[in-house]
Amino acid sequence: MNSTAFTFRPLDPLKDAQLLHGWVTHPKASFWMMGDARLEDVERAYMQIAADEHHHALLGLHEGVPAFLMEQYAPAHRELVGLYEPEPGDVGMHFLVAPTETPVHGFTRAVVTAVVRHLFQDPAVGRIVVEPDVRNKAVHALNAAVGFVAEREIDKPEKRALLSFCTRERFEKAVAA
């Protein structure tokens, strides 16, 4: 899949809330933990992110059409505070692919590849940190395919998570294979 078909734009919490609401409440997004969210809950959650200097949300587009959500955060300040020893250049990441009635083979892997590539475009980023639910085997496989290495399980307030890291070098090696 052509990675140039993916672009990113800042998420607009009010204009994009209806779209996001459909994504985060879909049964396939169960690990996003917003299944019962009302539209107002989604607006509020993403307005909080928009106001947070350590957390950002981007809408991912495929050929100009909204197709996924990406969040990046500073793990020294959000999500993982006190759960691991952050290094300079660490950035945390979440992604959610929009549900579809017509899945395209390889699309989600192309999305995670585009997300990681986008984060590594910032030369200050040395390592990407993820903490998916330990039960989310599909995302563990996707993360491994783009160079993430699992370190250990951790307990977060909302879930048991698999703390994993990806360096620029591991990413380049994984996507070149």
Order of neighbouring strands in the sheet with most strands: 1-2-3-4-5-7-6
Give the N-to-C terminal Cα separation: 15 Å
The low-pLDDT segments are: none
Q: Helical region count?
A: 5
Helix share, percent: 25-40%
Cα shape: globular
How would you describe what is shown here?
The structure is a single chain. The chain is of the alpha+beta class. Helices cover 29% and strands 28% of the residues. The chain has five helices and seven strands, in the order βααβββαβαββα. The protein has a seven-stranded mixed beta sheet with strand order 1-2-3-4-5-7-6, sandwiched between helices. β6 (149-155) and β7 form a beta hairpin. α1 packs across α2 (39-50). The chain is globular and about 35 Å long. The model has no long low-confidence stretch (mean pLDDT 92).
Concise structural overview:
By secondary structure, this protein is α+β, with helices and mostly antiparallel strands.
Walk me through the topology.
Blueprint: E1 6-10, H1 17-24, H2 39-50, E2 55-62, E3 65-73, E4 90-97, H3 107-120, E5 127-130, H4 137-145, E6 149-155, E7 160-167, H5 168-176
Key terms for this structure?
177 residues; alpha+beta; 7-stranded mixed β-sheet; 5 helices
